[in-house]
Each structure stands twice: as C-alpha cells, then as structure tokens.
Amino acid sequence: MADVVVVGGGIIGLTAARRLQQRGADVTIWTAHDVRDTVSSVAAAVWYPTHTDDDPRVRRWAASAYREFMRQADAGVPGVMVRHTRMVLRSPLAALPWWARSIGDAVLAGGELRFSAPLVEMDTYLAWLLSQLVDGGATVVRRRPVSLAAASAAAPIVVNATGLAARELCGDTAVYPVRGHIVLADNPGLVESVRDEDNPAGLTYVHPRGDDVVLGGTFEEGLSSVAPDPVEAAAIVRRCGAVVPELSGVRVRGSRIGLRPARRGGPRVEAEGQVIHAYGHGGAGVTLSWGCADDVASWGDHLA
Q: Which domain covers residue 236, as residue numbers?
C-alpha cells in the first residue's frame, strides 16, 4: 500500500506529489487523463497571480513558486524559461502591486510595470515532472475516482487535487469553471512578454516561448463550453497584434480552450481527516503550485 494517493494529474497534483515524494513518501497518483490532456496543459503558464486576493497564503505560495521556477530555469529544467515582461497600465499605480513584492526587479516606468517572470511550456514541463515522479518510484494509475473514499481505501493519506471535479466529489458548490481561450502562433522572434489586462477590447497578453508564441485570451467565469470559436480566436489575434505590431501576418497554429478550476473564497488547501484538499486555484495554478505543494507536504508530515 502506498503512503499517499494523490488524486489529480494536473500541476497542483503533480507538484504536491513530488514534494511528498521528496520528503520520503511512497506516492501513487490517480489521474483521469493523460497529463497532456489536463487543463494544466492548456495554460499560458506565466507566473502571475491572476484574479487572486492579497492574503497571506497566496503571497507565500506565489513567492515560493516564483523562487522555485527561477531556480529551475537556472538549472535548465525542460520547459522552464524566464521572460522580461511589460504590463501596460491603463490607470497609473501609486505603488507596486502586492504580488510584485515577490519579484526583485519589478519597477514602474513609462506607464508600464516591468518585471521578469518564469514562463513554462506545459507539455514539456508536465512530462518532465511526471518522469521525475516515476523515476523516484511513484506509481501512476489512469483512474477516475467515484469518491474520495475509494482513494482512502488505497492509502492512509489522500490528496484531493481534482480541480473542477471537487465540486461533485466534495459537494463544494463554491467551485466553478472559468473558460480560457488562447491562440498559438509562430514566434516571429519575440523574447519579451506583454500584458494588457485592462485593454478595453478584451484581456490581452503575448507570451513568447521557443518557436511559438501564446496569444490570449479570455477569462469567462461560469462558462463551461470548450467548443472551438474561430471568431473569438480572430479577435484575440487582432488584439495582440495591436499591442505587439511584430505579430502582423503571423501564422496561426491553432487554439486551445480550457476550464480553469476557480473557487469562491479562494483555493481550498487544508486537511479534513486524512484527506488533504488542494483545489480551486483558478487561473493561478502554475503561479501558486510549488508553494501550495509545500503546504500539502507539511500537512502530509503532520498526518503521517
């Protein structure tokens, strides 16, 4: 029998599993999908605590994840890089936002907030993270649990990192979907990220990776359709091209649409009996991941 069953194969589940494993736990991961098919794989995956509140937990998680991703970028971990970022400010800021305290080089200049942030190519990174777990002795099982009780029968400690599925598994009606739509295009040589969160035409961001660039996006609370929307995709490309003219005429590779697992009241990260809940991170899953994983591992030590 494993020491811990982690239910959920997205970024929250896998980082929690890795931290538990690094503390000596024998971990089994139950995932309903291949990691390449989780909502985490659709993420633009740039460190930025979007739509999160300024509370001590979020500050701590965000700062910890920032440090970990920067360390991984320095170490050459596959899929992790650092991008200088320009955030367009539609209204002036008198001081740096709360989350910028985690960043050593954040400055206000010329109507912009400028800072460096980790960016993660999720397909590559999730595959690397899963390989680290398997090489460390973890077992991965393709299984969709019908209840957390089933997981509890397989290990004395369960981590519930099921995202949107937590609404049904836990009866948590505070969990809801936030639809996100990004467009992937050829990278014309960009090396700098640009964010225009308050663009009157719609949420706009440009995140260059290797040979492609992520163009975004949408943040549509309560919508659950993942059907393709060519009109919306074209609007995203137009918005991004208006902010970054180098994108004019760029070849579009396709769209990705995912449902972010948000929760009214913020993420739930706490122990309930022998179950450690870790879900409801919304669009900030990558940004909070490693910090949240540290807390999950601490709960695991307490319950063991």
A: 4-303
Structure confidence at residue 229 (pLDDT): 95
What total of structural domains would you count in the chain?
1
| 160, 166, 170, 172: CA torsion to nearest 10 | 130
- Residue 304 pLDDT > 80: no
Residue 96 sits in a domain whose CATH number is 3.50.50.60
SS (H, E, C) the chain: CCCEEEECCCHHHHHHHHHHHHCCCCEEEEECCCHHHCHHHHCCCECCCCCCCCCHHHHHHHHHHHHHHHHHHHHCCCCEEEEEEEEECCCCCCCCCHHHHHCCCCEEECCEEEEEEEEECHHHHHHHHHHHHHHCCCEEEECCCCCHHHHHCCCCEEEECCHHHHHHHCCCCCEEEEEEEEEEEECCCCCEEEEECCCCCCCEEEEECCCEEEEECCCEECCCCCCCCHHHHHHHHHHHHHHCHHHCCCCEEEEEEEEEEEECCCCEEEEECCEEEEECCHHHHHHHHHHHHHHHHHHHHHHC
pLDDT in tens, 106-123: 999 999 999 999 999 999
